[in-house]
Amino acid sequence: MDKTLKIYIGLFVLAVLAMFFYESSKPKPINWYPSYVKKHKIPYGTYILYHELEDLFPEKEIKDIPISPYIYLKNKTREGTYLFIDESINFDEETFNLLLDFVASGNEVFLSTKGCNIDTLGLKTKAIYKKKMSDKPYFKLYNAQFGNKEYSFDRYFKNVVFSEIDTTKVRVLGQSGYIDQEGNRTNSGINFIKYPYGKGNFYFHTFPEAFTNYQLLNSPNETYASDMLSYINTKDQALIWDAYYKTGKSRISSPMHYILSQKSLKWAYFFILMGVLFFIIFEGKRKQRSIPILSPLKNQTLAFTRTIANMYFEKQEHKNIAEHKIQYLLEYIRTKHRMATDTIDAVFIKNLSARSNHSEESVTQLFNYIAYIHKKNKITPLGLEELNKMIERFKDESK
Fold first, then answer.
1. Within the chain, which residues score under 70 in pLDDT?
2. Residue 290, strand partner residues
3. 181, 138 Cβ separation under 8 angstroms
4. Which residues neighbour 202 within 8 Å (Cβ) at sequence distance 6 or greater?
5. For 307, which DSSP code?
6. Which of 152, 127, 132, 126 is nearest to 220 (CA)?
7. Are 275 and 326 found together in one domain?
8. Which residue in 98, 126, 239, 248 could disulfide with 73, CB within 3.0 to 4.6 Å?
9. pTM attached to this predicted model
């Protein structure tokens, strides 16, 4: 290995190490994925809420349920408040019927999601939008005990409210909308309701972001979540945390997925790949230089002849092909039989017949046909074929 190559390799290694150092030292970008998972500390995780539930409900047992409500509620003895918080939740008919039975027997379900279209209870939702870019969202609870406070949210979100509710059964608990710079409300709707059913209650809320880490850390917005949860029954029953309907529910599809998701393991994996690459460069090559195989030069005369012949044949220039065939025959006679071909007469035919072991009659017939070809401006493919047969027969018998 010469000195120049060593310098280039050294510069390459330094560049790779510098890149690794830069990538490992730069701040990790904020993950705004709406996971709603209790162990996630990202802005849209629910780590803070889950760990504050014990303080909010000191008398309740917190149960973390990672299985479907359909499986969990098959046991009819379950009691408590089932808490669902996610971007979108779509219950199948069988699961929701079990939730209805669960509530009817005296339990509660608190559901905070943007997808609250439930035909069984006559609930429909719609999205509302700003009328001006400067309008800001607001959220408010109707209970006077909360001091008529209003809350906001400073990131883009889909503002969903109820478009259809049964006012004879539903109790309205809160609203959402937009307010302009003058303090006027430009668009609003109901976003939090209580729906009594049997001996229990449903609570439907359409702004799940209120329970995320980001919202709870923005004072005074954290009280908005605690005020809504204060509606939950304070009886000594379990608080059932749903860990099944979560957008960011942990799923490890392969060992490589786990390795790349852990920073230390990911960089260890990259260094291993670089080590393998260096091994291939320095140790993977042959220790002894291989002897190159030199192929002999090919005789291209035949290929050239075929190319020219094909060219003439494709252009239907049979006369030119015939003339070339005749010239090659004369060259063959000059080379093989050591005879001059300037004059074709009886003496030439007699001498050629003797030297080529042909009869004078057959040689005369060949050169008469050649003279015939010379006189013609064009010949047919059959004429060219006949000439070729006669020439090949002459050469074969001359051998």
1. 1-2, 5-6, 8, 20, 22-26, 234, 249-258, 260-262, 281-290, 301-302, 304-305, 308-316, 399
2. none
3. no
4. 103, 108, 109, 111, 121, 194, 195, 196
5. H
6. 152
7. no
8. 98
9. 0.60
Residues 201 and 222 occupy one common structural domain: yes
Contacts of 193 (CB under 8 A, 6+ apart): 162, 165, 170, 171, 172, 173, 203, 204
Compute how many other C-beta atoms are within 10 angstroms of the C-beta atom of residue 266.
14
Confidence at residue 239, expressed as pLDDT on a 0 to 100 scale: 94
Write out the residue range of the structural domain in which residue 274 sits: 3-28+254-282
SS3 state at 84: strand
**Is 217 found in the same domain as 132?**
yes
Selection from 40, 68, 37, 38 nearest residue 51 by Cα: 38
How many domains in the chain? 3
- Give residue 279's identity as a one-letter amino acid code: F
Check: CB of residue 39 under 8 Å from CB of residue 51: no
CATH (domain of 193): 3.40.50
Residue by residue, DSSP assigns 161-213 as EEEE--TTT-EEEEEEEEE-TTS-EEEEEEEEEEEEETTEEEEEES-GGGGSH
pLDDT at 253: 47
Question: Could you please report the per-residue DSSP string of 90-128?
Answer: ---HHHHHHHHHHHHTT-EEEEE-S---BGGGTBEEEEE
Same domain, 323 and 265: no
pLDDT of residue 215: 92
Tokens 């803070």 locate to: 48
